[in-house]
Amino acid sequence: MACSTGQETLGSDTFSSLDGNNDESTGEDGPGDGDPGDGDGDPGDGDGDPGDGDGDPSGDGDGDGDGDTGDGDGDGDEVCARYLYRHNLANDVWETQPLDLVWTGPNAPPCSVEPKAAAYLEVWDQLLVWGGNGMYYRRIGGAWQPPEPIADRWAVVANLEIDSVTHVPPINGGTSTTVTFVSLPNALLYEVFEDGATNYDQTVVMTDEPPPGPSQSSSVRRWSAVLADPELLGQADWWVSYAGFDDGKIYRFDGAFVWSNWPANQAPVLAGAPPSLDPSKLEAGYGDHGLNRVYLIGP
Q: Annotated region Disordered: where (predicted)?
């Protein structure tokens, strides 16, 4: 899906109008003073973490930053019904772990809660998760922050069914990331700052794309995963989104405004997936451009 800044409808032609330079935002819709980071597109440049940028400073690969494999509550008797599927796009190697072995600690999203959407803001090493329990979770580096009601920072979408989320990192000297919520048939745009402050921008109506693009106005986008590197702006692959729709297809859209699609079981982003991964049951996803990985969450 493309992003818009001022159009009445949302289509791929509006992606190029996003300049990422909304410096007038001051975070009125959420806590924080709106004081952004440097927005230079250099992952890991402000978090003090010389690691690989996947949000896991411990290097144990599980993303929780603690180097352990506990379930987070200390008793070890829960059975997690959700999994994190990691796909290394460079070599089609997959890893699968119960979600409660990856997202751990008292502030992490509980495994019992459906993640309605997720986004990894690689430029700031922050993972954002919107839960089906009405709570919002944010991991900075390896540390989950105290959860809060979605309405505290994202009031406009708090009572909507969130289908998926995409984002565009700061570009052209901008200091905010544009986060786009999809709630059929609309897309709702927010500006987000490194300190967590948010500003609601606008709501636009999605339009259908000609084949091979999706019918955005009627087909539900179940999950999305974005891989982006602002320093590659101008190249087709500087921004790539994969999305699973309820029409049984997976769509790819890139920075050159080119759509591709495949039946879910033939999509390259799921090449070599383990038999336990059911594309129709995936709930959320996110990507890491630096590691060339896609992360998918589902039963």
A: 1-76
